[in-house]
Amino acid sequence: MAKAFFRLQKFLRRTQFLLFFLTAAYLMAGSLLLLQRTRLVIQQGSRGTPANQALPVLDEMSRIGIIDPQTLQNPGPRLLVGMDALQEPALDPRHSPHWLTSRNSELRQLRRRWFHRFTSDQEPMQTAGFKAMKHTTEHKGTYMGCFTHDSRERTLKGAVFYDLRKMTVAHCQEACAERAYTYAGLAYGAECYCGNTLPAAASKPEECNSECKGEKGSVCGGVNRLSVYRVEELRAGARRWRNVIYRGCFRAPENLTDTFPASLIQPNVTVEMCSEFCSKKEFPLAVIRRQECYCGYPTGRFPLRDGTDGLHCSGTRNASSTAEGQHCLVYQTPVQDTRCTDRKFLTTKSKVFVALSSFPGAGNTWARHLIEHATGYYTGSYYFDGALYNKGFKGEKDHWRSRRTICVKTHESGKTEIEMFDSAILLIRNPYKSLVAEFNRKYAGHLGYATDRNWKSKEWPDFVNSYASWWASHVLEWLKYGKRLLIVHYEDLKQSLIPKLKEMVEFLNVTVTEDRLLCVENNRDGNFKRSGAKQKNFEPFTQEMKDLINKYILTVDEALRGRNFSGLPREYVPR
Questions:
Q1: How far apart (Å, rounded) are the C-alpha atoms in residues 259 and 299?
Q2: Are 541 and 549 spatial neighbours (Cβ–Cβ below 8 Å)?
Q3: Where are the beta strands (DSSP E) in 73-162?
Q4: What Å distances lie between residue 256 and 260, 264, 548, CA to CA?
Q5: How far apart are CA 220 and CA 197, in angstroms?
Q6: pLDDT for 446
Q7: How far is CA 232 from the centre of its chain?
Q8: What span, in angstroms and rounded, lies between the C-alpha atoms of 140 and 231?
């Protein structure tokens, strides 16, 4: 009996020890997982800073309680790295100067830590604004019901908008009303579609069950389902043609009825009458010749490339006197050209891994917009920018090495990162414009402008001191380590959009039609053109800054010519 009791006691002790060991192991594993996730969140929230941004990063850490503010008031030597006065580099005639190479590894690690920090800071505040708005916003349109949404054969195909974080019913209605559409439809809680024809296939009301991303308690369609509203007529004084843009005077095509699919013949036709007629027909162009109004798209027959002297079209507001019918007035209606807006991921993995590389502020987002609409495929990103993803760049969330995107955005310039790509489109912009654009993005987001206080602070000269050298080193390192490069200058792309875009598309080994390229030209600005009050006659660069930047320009120009590329455009020449 005693022996059996002893065995039982021994077994219980072993079991107790085993349970204790398993509990401790479980707690340790959970702690490690939590630490790893925290690290990933920090890394995702901020990437890509130069050495001279050490103090702003530490200031942010102080704000959230990671660092004692007193440490910032009395920084040690390590916190003052890169905060010296502007210094001119000793130029080296070699291809990759020592003053750039020596800094590259240090800068490369720090750049990744802040690059999208300001995006993540701004979005929570904006979301909070939507939460407060839901109690006061009223849906002024008339709810028409729940309808079937077929992405391949859409009825509401006049315009498409995405906001994967802040979409509301009112936001969609306003966007469609601004473009003179009759109906606004919402799907998947975040997608907005506009049109003038009500979808034919109705669905059960309960199938529209997706909550709006920016407005709790409101329904924004569902999976393959649209919540459709009839948009309220614009209030008096806010006429439908307020967004009509004059495109110019052009020679009329030989057969207008074959060129344009819709027409209206009426005595004393006006711009307003023709624009409203074409808007209701969902065409982006309104063309007026004498008493005739035509609606359509830019095409090979009518590409809108070679405008004529406006004297050939006398009377821009009343077209009854256009010279002998040989010329016509062309207006852009509020309707979006949707022939090139549908995009998707590659159906099979790409065999060639292509980078879309640029210095920050050089127009990478705009170039991605052009490439996506020209090819019909999403572009990826080495980073994750929530603001871009929310506006429809769905490749942002796809892993950058998935090879499901047509090319991958990157601002990296290290040897290891460059050699991972088989080829690259290297986008270069005037450093003066790039520095201003990136400074605006850093302090006011993708669409705003930095304040006078930002420009007059010590942060601006520190920014120029660090980023000017990064602009140069980025080009030099890609010239040195890139395997197959297509050099595209931002200014050339802006001035000659179709020819340059053709080069880019061919480099990506994609075949596109001329009509699709013309559609891209018609939608050239996208959703990321800065708006608001822009400072006039503003010169942020001191002579000392210009001397510094000009030396970098000469170095890059020499390196490009040394690799048998054309040099920098003339406007880059030191001023």
A1: 8
A2: yes
A3: 142-148, 159-162
A4: 6, 12, 56
A5: 19
A6: 72
A7: 30
A8: 8
Instruction: Write the single-letter amino acid at 210.
Output: S
Instruction: Give residue for tokens 């890169």.
Output: 82
Distance CA(493)–CA(427), nearest Å, equals 10
Residue 124's φ and ψ, nearest 5 degrees, are -60, -35
- DSSP H stretches of helix in 376-426: 386-390, 415-419
Residue 348, phi then psi, degrees to nearest 5? -125, 155
**Number of DSSP helices (H) and strands (E) in the chain, helices first:** 18, 17
Q: Would you call 377 helix, strand, or coil by DSSP?
A: strand
492-to-281, 425, 517, 560, 571 alpha-carbon distances in Å:
35, 14, 16, 16, 11
Pairing of strands 285-289, 245-251: unpaired
Q: What is the mean pLDDT of the segment spanning 187-195?
A: 89
C-alpha dist (Å) from residue 385 to 1, 125, 449? 72, 16, 19
Which residue in 526, 527, 522 sits closest to 283, CA to CA?
522
> Which sign does the torsion angle of CA 499, 501, 503, 506 carry?
negative
Cβ atoms within 10 Å of 222's Cβ, excluding its own:
21
Taking alpha carbons only, the member of 516, 414, 363, 536 closest to residue 101 is: 414
- Match 């007529």 to its residue by tokens: 233
| pLDDT tens track for 256-274 | 888 999 999 988 889 999 9
Predicted confidence (pLDDT) per residue in 93-131, tens digit:
434 444 444 444 444 443 443 344 433 444 333 333 333
Rounded distance, CA 407 to CA 367, Å?
11
d(CA 218, CA 79): 48
Among candidate residues 409, 410, 411, 380, the one with its CA nearest the CA of residue 393: 380
DSSP 318: B
pLDDT (tens digit per residue) in 207-232: 999 999 888 888 999 998 999 999 87
Backbone angles phi, psi at 176, to 5 degrees: -70, -40
> Is 250 within 8 Å of 325 (Cβ atoms)?
no
Give the residue among 63, 55, 64, 43 at the shortest CA–CA distance from 117.
43
Residue 166, judged by CB atoms within 10 A of its CB (0-12, 13-18, 19+), counts as middle
Task: Enter the tokens of residue 327.
Answer: 């010329």
Residue of 184, 191, 189 whose CA lies nearest to 155:
184
To the question of domain 354-528+541-572 being in CATH 3.40.50.300, the answer is yes
- H or E element: which one contains 217? strand 215-219
Quick one: DSSP state of residue 410?
A: E
Domain ranges of the chain: 142-230, 245-313+326-332, 354-528+541-572
Q: Which residues have a Cβ under 8 Å from the Cβ of 15 and sit 6 or more positions away? A: none
| pLDDT attached to residue 3 | 62
CB 183, CB 197: distance < 8 Å: yes
Please state the separation of Cα 52 from the chain's center in Å: 26
Question: Which residues lie closer than 8 Å to 77 by C-beta, 6 or more apart?
Answer: none
pTM score of the predicted model: 0.69
pLDDT at residue 283 greater than cutoff 60: yes
Question: Apex CA 362: angle with CA 382 and CA 487, to 5°?
Answer: 85
Residues 6+ apart with CB under 8 A from 415: 477, 481
